[in-house]
Amino acid sequence: MVLTFRLTEEGRGAFNMSNAPVIDLHCDLLVYLLMNKNASPETKAFGAGFPFLKEGNVKMQVMAIYTAVEEASSRNGVAQSEIYKRLLTDYSADIYQADAQFDSSNDRIGIVASLESASGICNEEEPLDNAFKNLETIISNVERLFYISFTHHTENRFGGGNYATAGLKPDGEALLDYMDGREIAVDLSHTSDALAHDILDYTYKKGLKVPVIASHSNFREVWDHPRNLTKANAQEIVDRGGLIGINFLRAFLNNDDANALLDHVKYGFDLKGGEQAMAFGADFFYTGDFPDPARDPYYFPEHEDASKYHGILNQLEQDLTSDQLSRLAHKNVERFIVSNWN
Questions:
Q1: pLDDT digits (tens, 9 = 90+) for 28-82
Q2: What is the DSSP letter of 242?
Q3: Does the global pTM surpass 0.90?
Q4: Candidates 1.10.10.60, 3.20.20.140, 3.40.50.11750, 3.40.50.1980; correct CATH number of 17-340?
Q5: Confidence band of 15 (pLDDT split at 50, 70, 90)
C-alpha cells in the first residue's frame, strides 16, 4: 500500500490549540458497550462517548478490547471485536476505520482497535492454538490491531500484570513470536516491571520486529505508582521509536494535584528524544458501577472527558513550543503510523 498519510499543520505557522486535531491511544468504550447492552456510543455517561470526542476534535481514537482473567475472557474478547465491527456500520456518519492512509483532516473520527490483556484471546485453560485462532478472528473483525497488552492488573498465562511480580512466560514468548512483523505493537502499560524487562530483552535478543509502546501510562519518577513507567523503561520505549500516552486517571497522576498531569507531560518531553514519543492515552472508562469508591472521583474535573484536551494544551503553552504541542496532540502518533504501518 502506498502511504498517502498527510502530516497536518506543516508549515502553517503557530499551533492553534483551539482546533488542533487530537489522537488518543486508549479508551474502554467497547467493554462499556458489551456490559451495558442498551448503551450507545452517543452517550455523555462515558468520557469518550462520541459527543465528547467530537467536542475535543479527536480525529483518531484507539478502542481497547479489555478482558479480565476469567473463564469467559476469550468469548468477551471476540464479542467486543464484533461490537467494533458493528459500530463501523451503524455509525458510519461519525466514524471510519483508520489505516495507514489515515488523514487527520477527515471530518469523521478514525478508530482502530487494540487488545488490553491477552486474556481476550484465551482463558487460562484453553490450548494455546485457540489463542491464535481467536486472535485471527478478532483481527478479521477489527481489520487492524494497534497494540496488544499481555496483561492487566493481575498475572495471567502470558506474564505478570502491574500488581504482580511474574515476568514473561512461555506463552508470552509465543505471542511475541507471532507478532513479529505483523505491524502490532506490544504495550507495556499494564506489565509488571519483570514482564516489561523480559519483553524488551526477548524482542531485542531475537531481533523481533515488534514496536514497543506504553499506550496509557505515566512516570514513576513523578508519581510513585506501579502503574507508571520506570525511568529506564520509559527511556527504552523512546529509544525504540515508540509512544507514551499520558493517562488522565487521578490515581496515576497524583491523588491531590490536577496539575500533576502537566508535570508528567513535561517529564516525558525532558527524556532524551522524548519529544518524539509523547502522546495522549487518557484511559476513559465507565466509572458508574466501578467497585472501588475510594478512587472516586476517578478523574479531576479538568480531565474528566474527551472535551478537555484543548484545555490541557492551553495550560502547557507556557512550557512547550508550538511544535511540541502539535507532537503531543497528534503528530507523534502520525509519525509512528508512518514508520510502522504499511
A1: 999 999 999 999 999 999 999 999 999 999 999 999 999 999 999 999 999 999 9
A2: -
A3: yes
A4: 3.20.20.140
A5: low
Please give the Cα distance from 44 to 253 (Å, whole number): 24
Summarize pLDDT for 324-336 with one digit per residue, the tens: 999 999 999 999 9
Report how far apart the first and last C-alpha atoms of the chain are (Å, whole number).
6
Supply 36's cell numbers.
451495558
CB 150 within 8 A of CB 159: yes
Residue reference for cell 502520525: 334
User: Which residues 6+ apart lie within 8 Å of 95 measured at CB?
Assistant: 50, 87, 88, 108, 109, 110, 111
* 254 to 195, 222, 282: CA distances (angstroms): 25, 9, 15
Radius of gyration for the alpha carbons in the chain, expressed in angstroms and rounded: 18
Label each residue of 134-182 as H, E or C: HHHHHHHHHCCEEEEECCCCCCECCECECCCCCCCCHHHHHHHHHHCCC
